[in-house]
């Protein structure tokens, strides 16, 4: 009757092996990421997809590293040119986060989608059809309706 030990997720395994070039720095008030090299020099492929996969994590530090790492990578100069070719691989991963039953995982996926949309703009439009069913499902419930509505407005704004 002992607790079943599940194998670590792909993200957790990659993080444990040092495959993600940043580490969590525990501050007294706020956590932050420390990159081993400048985020501008990090290859987006496959790191951005791996960080997006980590959005489905439910344990600390994976939740923070994936969310913050995804955000910081998208803030580097030239992020659009690096992220647009990865859209076909990012969309299924974001879709899985948006389909997750955990509300926090859904929120992280929604935030990541809005951040990605702000960076790649109209390039995301062709891929949105894969995500809208999961968004509309959460739109029906009261708990996340406002956040989904705001996200849809931002997607419209960035997508043109």
From TrEMBL:
Where does the record place a coiled coil?
none
Q: Which PANTHER family match?
A: PACRG-LIKE PROTEIN, PARKIN COREGULATED GENE PROTEIN PARK2 COREGULATED
| Protein's recorded name | PACRG-like
User: Which species is this UniProt entry from?
Assistant: Eurypyga helias (Sunbittern)
